[in-house]
Amino acid sequence: MMESIPSDFWQGVEQFNSGQFYACHDTLEALWIEASEPEKSFYQGVLQIAVALYHLSNRNWRGAVILLGEGSNRLRRYPSTYSGIDVDELLYQSAALLSALQKAGAEKITAGNLGEDETLTLPKILIVNESGD
């Protein structure tokens, strides 16, 4: 199945994992526009999480929280691994970040005063070998 995944998707994964969230959004949005289901909603879920992280980098707590939730809800419809990525792990990491953001509250994020003991771990997309090798 991994050979049928567009190379642009892998470019988007690389951008996501290197913190280039706006570029990732652009790359995946181009795929999303052209895709049909079930890939269309999958791409949309991943790009919504990327945009959430972009909002977070701009200290937009509300945008980050909303899009983390929307992207995660969309990805919950997919199996544990899909299109060569570990969906469960992305959902787990996204939920942990969402929980930390909700606990911290908008004031701390927008003021930029998260203490050293309150580091936010950003999700990474893990690539899996679906053939079972």
TrEMBL record:
InterPro entries: DUF309 (IPR005500), TTHA0068_sf (IPR023203). It holds the Pfam family DUF309. Coiled coil: none annotated. It comes from the Bacteria. This is DUF309 domain-containing protein. It comes from Hassallia byssoidea VB512170.
